[in-house]
Design goal:
Elements (H helix, E strand, L loop, with lengths): L1 E7 H8 L2 E3 L5 E5 L9 E5 L5 H5 L5 E4 L10 E4 L3 H12 L14 E2 L4 E2 L4 E2 L4 E2 L4 E2 L4 E2 L4 E2 L4 E2 L4 E4 L4 E4 L2 E4 L5 E4 L4 E2 L4 E3 L5 E4 L4 E2 L4 E2 L4 E2 L4 E2 L4 E2 L4 E2 L4 E2 L4 E2 L4 E2 L4 E2 L4 E2 L8 E3 L4 E2 H20 L1
Parallel strand pairs: 3-4, 4-5, 5-6, 7-10, 8-11, 9-12, 10-13, 11-14, 12-15, 13-18, 14-19, 15-20, 18-21, 19-22, 20-23, 21-24, 22-25, 23-26, 24-27, 25-28, 27-30, 28-31, 29-32, 31-33
Antiparallel strand pairs: 1-3, 2-6, 16-17, 33-34
């Protein structure tokens, strides 16, 4: 998530009431999670296991819960609770603004686009040309939709990420300040749910077609010309490369990559990253030919044991 205006280290420290290490005028241009940080970003870390990863990342300001040596060219924000203070920054620069009308005045809707009854379109949404948005679709703030996109009834774009910290008094949600971005020629079936990124974008690439009742988690990036069948659940921070086919009732772990042109057969659990150009099946996932051979051998073994 980029700030509209760059901030200084001292300004952010004052906002969240923390000490800092570095030049008070050190420039900060946004906040991001570790997997998408770039120069100018703040990243937070609250466990020693991940200190080195955060300190050596592309982020140039680290929001951390212990004073440690500061890498050259970077700055530190020393916080008792980095998770809490990261939320403070998100809330300050991207506050929730309650809707007053069904279609926000700040929304931009392209020529030839049809908006059916009972659609909700939030603040600063951008929708391209020649789209069809069917009844009861909810499009949350800042969503970006390209040209020639079809979205069927009851689909929700931009709900919060499913991201919580377990505390003694309950679960504390990490606030979502990212977006959903649909490129041109995307089709979404009925009752799909596409969560926005925590700090970045959840993206669906040009020409991808998604069936009814599919869930896409936060910060997932789906490539071009993919086919995803009904009741598939894709976790957060997944990368699905171009021309992947995913059949029904597939589930994935978070943070994995499915390579270009892969085919994931129905009811598979994608427990790890898989290479492109191959067909996969089963839980744990394996190449479909190997998995089907294993199943046939097991069936033969059980039959032989029964007859012995």
């Amino acid at each position: 998530m980029k700030f509209n205006i760059p901030q200084t280290l001292s300004q952010i420290a004052q906002l969240i009431n923390t000490d800092f290490v570095g030049d008070s005028n050190f420039s900060i241009t946004g906040i991001n999670e570790i997997h998408v940080v770039v120069k100018g970003d703040i990243v937070f870390v609250d466990h020693p296991k991940y200190y080195d990863k955060a300190l050596n990342s592309a982020a140039t300001t680290i929001l951390i819960n212990k004073k440690v040596p500061c890498p050259e060219g970077k700055a530190l924000l020393i916080s008792e609770d980095p998770f809490r203070d990261f939320n403070k920054i998100t809330k300050h620069f991207n506050p929730f603004i309650a809707a007053k009308v069904s279609i926000a005045e700040s929304a931009i809707i392209g020529e030839g686009t049809v908006i059916q009854p009972n659609v909700f379109i939030g603040n600063k949404v951008r929708i391209g040309r020649n789209c069809i948005i069917h009844p009861n679709v909810a499009i949350y703030d800042h969503t970006v939709i390209g040209d020639n996109v079809n979205i069927h009834a009851n689909t929700v774009l931009g709900a919060d990420a499913f991201y919580y910290k377990n505390r003694a008094d309950g679960f504390d949600q990490l606030l979502s300040g990212g977006r959903v971005v649909l490129e041109d020629n995307v089709d979404l079936g009925a009752s799909c749910t596409i969560d926005r990124g925590v700090t970045g974008d959840t993206k669906i690439g040009n020409g991808t077609k998604i069936d009814n009742q599919v869930h896409v988690g936060h910060d997932t990036v789906i490539g071009k010309k993919c086919l995803i069948a009904s009741q598939t659940g894709i976790a957060g921070c997944v990368i699905i490369e171009d021309e992947v086919t995913i059949w029904g009732q597939v589930g994935t772990n978070s943070g994995i990559t499915i390579g270009k042109g892969a085919v994931i057969l129905g009811q598979t659990g994608v427990t790890k990253s898989v290479k492109g150009g191959k067909s996969y099946f089963g839980t744990p996932i394996a190449e479909s030919r190997e998995k089907l051979k294993e199943m046939a051998e097991m069936k033969r073994f059980l039959k032989d044991r029964k007859n012995s």
